[in-house]
Specification:
Distance between the termini: 50 Å
Number of domains: 1
Structural class: alpha/beta
CATH class: Alpha Beta
Low-confidence stretches: none
CATH superfamily: Vaccinia Virus protein VP39
Length: 243
């Protein structure tokens, strides 16, 4: 693989200083960026390392500003795609066990290659849907998701996986009050509080970046998760929706 451009290398150094990353984490992140640039079928359109270091790496690492992420022993990243944000967080948090849940086999295969190339030992690919991943139920300190589904739908995916006291962290763009309101209503059904919304600046040119955080405050009813696909077809928190 070609070496990283100096601009990307300098940016990684900046991120390493910002988040107090170990040298091993920075080396793993560099290998990840090289793989995205060189792999024949990466599941992302942003492949240039100079752009990807911000759009992928910095955007994922900004979640380290959330104390619950820093303290997590178990993390599940839903719809992990190219391994973002989950694999990036696994590199930054070597003491955490990170499950990268991705139902698409091609994307799961890429994540597996990325884990091998970057030498990450605390990440596991789960080729499954969130609704059918039985081994993950009520066992996660944190669930993450970026560009997966509307917030109320992600809340339904995540709630059965979180332990009471766990935290859902969702990356979003512009704030949408109606979406946040429906997520809050869904949360009341699922045992989640929030969402609490934080504006973040992962890199200088970023705009409209937010983290939506919901906390699991009580047990999720045994009727969840519903069958695969139902959360999208009949999303919770909307007027007229029945479980």
């Amino acid at each position: 693989m070609a070496p990283l451009p100096q601009a990307a290398r300098r940016r990684l150094d900046d991120l390493g200083a910002r988040y107090a990353l170990a040298e091993s984490a920075q080396a793993a992140l560099a290998a990840f960026l090289q793989l995205i640039a060189s792999d024949p079928t990466p599941p992302t359109a942003v492949r240039d390392p100079v752009a990807a270091v911000d759009v992928h790496v910095a955007d994922a690492l900004v979640a380290l500003e959330v104390p619950e992420i820093r303290a997590a022993a178990s993390v599940a990243d839903l719809g992990s795609g190219a391994g973002i944000p989950g694999l990036v967080l696994a590199m930054a948090l070597p003491a955490a066990r990170v499950s990268l849940v991705e139902s698409n086999r091609r994307k799961s295969s890429f994540i597996g290659r990325a884990i091998e190339m970057s030498g990450v030992h605390n990440a596991l690919v789960v080729n499954d849907r969130a609704e059918t991943w039985a081994a993950g139920k009520v066992s996660q300190d944190v669930v993450t998701a970026r560009a997966l589904a509307p917030l109320n739908v992600v809340a339904e995916y995540a709630a059965p996986l979180l332990r009471v006291g766990g935290t859902l962290v969702v990356w979003t763009g512009k704030r949408e009050p109606e979406v946040e309101a429906s997520a809050a209503q869904a949360g009341k059904i699922l045992g989640l509080s929030g969402p609490h919304v934080f504006e973040v600046t992962p890199f200088a040119a970023s705009e409209h970046r937010h983290l939506h955080i919901m906390s699991k405050v009580s047990d999720t009813p045994a009727t969840f998760p519903r069958r695969p696909g139902v959360a999208r077809k009949r999303p919770l928190g909307l007027a007229g929706t029945t479980v």
